[in-house]
Each structure stands twice: as structure tokens, then as C-alpha cells.
Amino acid sequence: MTAITVRAPDSRKAMEELLRRLGPDALILSTRHVNGMVEISALPPDADPASLPPIPAPAATPAPAFIPKSDPASFAAALQASARRAAASAPAADPVETLSRSLLLPEGLAEDWPTRILIAGPPGAGKSMLAARIAARLMLAEPGIRPQVIAPVPATLLTEERLRGWCRLMGLTLERPGIAAAMALPDPSPATPQIIDLSDCPGDATALAARLTETPGAEVILCLPVGLHPARVERLCQDWRALAPTVTLTGLDQWWPERDELQAIARTGLKLTRIAAGTGLIDALSRPGAADLRTWASGWSAAVSEAAE
């Protein structure tokens, strides 16, 4: 059976294209970095897993939570092992495993932080705090990085200046350009990534995001609070789907997401890539995995809870 190969500027976009063409059950064969591009090869989900090449023997030391892209052999092996585990699942569908494959990125996929991040979402979702948390995460991960935190503003402010206070705690200055100036922002650089909070310009958020994602590798984050009605979740995801956003769920320290909320995200083809909990800026963001789904499933219906155990 013929393998499909996709290429993209980063691993997230390559995976998005692969999932679009082959679906979440594709059997990943290899991941390489070629001339600055990420190249992923995979077989359709109906391919015979026995025909895949052998998986390299595991290293003597435990693998990190995220395999760095600088080690393409281990990165490819992690993705291939994840695909084999999915292909070898029992015929009786595990609802949590099925949801995991459609909602989450494959285990072992490296975390990419683009140089321009735009944060959108409904009022009260925690967009400004998410912007501050991402800035703190970037500064801790790579000393020397000084993110530009930008919150475009129309003629009248709609929210209080909490983001300015959080920026001051980190030694950063919040930039407040008007809509026209925000449309013409200069391109970011790796040393000064841009984090753009669209909280104060809901009427212009879509147009701004469409314009600013013309920069290669830019990412839109759809920030959603846990506890929204599933119909509302699906509508918001559909409204932003054209810009291929990732989804971040906030407020997990208050309650866990329900199955219907997560299914609403998965139905639109978007991926849940981050979750946030607590009131602090440091160590508040994490990448969700299948283990998180099984923990949340303990509070769902009896049938799903039993499958998660």
C-alpha cells in the first residue's frame, strides 16, 4: 500500500495536513527534518500494521515527555510506536481511546511554540491570563527570550488592565496598539515572539487573526473555559475552524471537562493541545494526554467510567 508523505514548516502543521488527508487512525512511518521542513510519512488506517518496519529498540534511559525534534530518529520511533499501539487496539471500541485519537495530538509529538501566537475565545475564558502564562513559559524555557505581549484595543477599553500587571511582574511592557496599527504589526523574531491577546477587540478579532496568521508558522489558540454547553463549544470551534486553531481549555482546577464538551471539539476536527489550571502564571499549562482523559472519564457515565479503568 502506498505511503503518503506531507511536508510543512513545523510538526503541528504537518500533523494537521496528515490528519486531514488520512484521519486520526493513520499509521505513521517516519518523521524527518529536510531543508528546514518537517516531513511525515504515513499509511492509511486500513493498512496492515504487520507490514511496518520494526520499531528500534528502546533506549536504556526513560524517554522524555516530549521528544525533541533535534533527535529525529527517536521522534519518528515515538510516533511509529504510538501508531502501532492505536492499530493494535482491541476490536471492541474503547470510547476513551477513540476520543483520545480524534482529540489529542499523538504521544511524543514535540511541542512547537511559534513566533506569533494569537489568543481568541469567548468573554471570561481567561485569554489574558493565558497570554501571560505563555509569556512566562517561553521565558523560563529559553533564557534571553523577551516576548512582546500585545493587546489591540479599539476606541474604548472593555476590560480592566490585569494583563498589564502580569506583564509588569515579568519585567515586560504591554503594548496596546489600535486596530489599524495591529493589522500592520512587524514580523516577529525567535528572540521576541509575539503573544497577541484579542480580548479587547471582539468585533475585529477574526479579521485581525486572519491578517496576522499570514506570517509563516503563526498559531491561533482558541481559549475555552471548561463547563460551556457542548453546542456552544461546537459553534465556537466552527466559527474559528477556517484559521485551524488549536484549543486550550482553562479552569480545570474548578471542574473537569465533560465527555460532550470534548466530543464537540473533536467533531470539528480541532485538537486540544493545552490545558490550564490554577491562579498562578508558572507551571499552569500542560499538554493533555490519554491519561488525563481517563481521569476525567471517572466522572462521566458509568459505561464510560468502566471503560476507562
From TrEMBL:
InterPro entries: P-loop_NTPase (IPR027417). It comes from the Bacteria. This is Flagellar biosynthesis protein FlhF. It comes from Paragemmobacter ruber.
